[in-house]
Specification:
single chain; alpha/beta; Rossmann fold; 5-stranded parallel sheet; transferase; aminotransferase
């Protein structure tokens, strides 16, 4: 049986090509910010889109050098308060563009004087209409309730946006290579980690920096698709208090990119291996899971989502679960 989740994961490289080929929206955003440089940025998104926002936060702070805040839509919708955002860059990330709280938060940010930009898969949507600038994700329709290709597109859109604003030729070049690397990642079978999941009582995903958003995204997919309690942690934090919750029945997936954060991830993996815990490293020369080889540290963790999604989909089928329709999950989260 071929599931929608599997089919849509295999569509990720084509979606990435469509996104990156549409240069106009990125150029428009960069031009707007060149005219009115933002003193800070605010990111708004929930669930998988929120994880894309975590990824974008690291890109903005490391590549643009401005501070980033994550805003909670409930500040506007429940507490009826607006924040002072004059001159800020407000980025809302949404797959459907129809979540009422994201619409309200975007409208409030615009009214407060922020430059509002939507990364959205459905451009004919209320969120897109509320924003001044729109970057289409070009992921195409998603039938599986748990998003895959739109999440990868959201992260790549954030990277493309930052590369354009910063004039970062190195990151831009890595993005050009990313569709082919995503295609290569489709051939990776993270069998060892996949086979550890059905027997697990909980799971952890660890990373740092650019990998933290993808780590949290993988943890979410474990919880909603496999009904497995899972948490995404900073590799630095997981070596301290939360380490007490790890044993052989709680597999740890560690994502490693080749940058200044690698030492911390390596240290966590070494500690867990020495203690005989169930740990699986992705990335780097010591990768225990099949990997396509390191490239740009900002792009590699996004490519790691592909084999993780495929492993979770296969584990779900092996457990007799439907990865396309997790219980209690809706395509559009209607929250106010």
């Amino acid at each position: 049986m071929t599931t929608a989740m599997a089919r849509e994961t295999f569509e990720i490289p084509d979606a990435a090509e469509r996104l990156l080929a549409d240069a106009g929206p990125f150029a428009a955003a960069a031009a707007a910010l060149a005219r009115h440089p933002a003193p800070f940025a605010v990111i708004c998104g929930r669930g998988s889109s929120g994880h894309a926002g975590v990824y974008l936060r690291y890109l903005i702070e490391t590549r643009l050098g401005i501070v980033v805040s994550h805003t909670a839509p409930s500040v506007v919708t429940n507490y009826r308060k607006s924040s002072a955002m004059r001159g800020a860059l407000f980025v809302v990330i949404s797959q459907s563009g129809r979540s009422p709280d994201l619409v309200a938060a975007t409208e409030a940010a615009r009214e407060s004087g922020a430059l509002t930009l939507a990364l959205v898969n459905v451009t004919a949507s209320p969120v897109a209409e509320a924003a001044q600038l729109v970057v289409p994700l070009h992921a195409g329709p998603e039938l599986a309730v748990a998003a895959t290709k739109s999440v990868v597109s959201s992260m790549l859109a954030g990277a493309r946006l930052v590369a354009e604003i910063a004039g970062d030729a190195e990151l831009s070049g890595a993005l050009v290579r990313s569709p082919e690397r995503l295609r290569a990642a489709l051939a990776l079978d993270w069998q060892g980690w996949r086979e550890a999941l059905p027997q697990a009582r909980a799971a952890f995903v660890a990373a740092r920096g650019y990998g933290f958003g993808p780590a949290r995204e993988i943890a979410l997919k474990l919880s909603e698709t496999l009904r497995l309690p899972a948490l995404g942690y900073s590799a630095a934090e997981l070596r301290h208090g939360p380490r007490a919750a790890i044993d052989r029945d709680t597999p740890v997936l560690a994502l490693r990119q080749h940058d200044a954060t690698a030492e911390t991830v390596d240290g966590l993996v070494d500690d867990l291996r020495a203690a005989g815990e169930s740990v699986f490293l992705a990335g780097g020369e010591r990768s225990a899971l099949p990997w396509i080889g390191d490239d740009h540290p900002a792009c590699d963790p996004v490519a790691m989502l592909v084999p993780a999604y495929l492993a979770i989909e296969r584990a779900a089928r092996a457990m007799g679960l439907d990865p396309d329709s997790p219980p209690f999950l809706k395509k559009v989260t209607e929250t106010l």
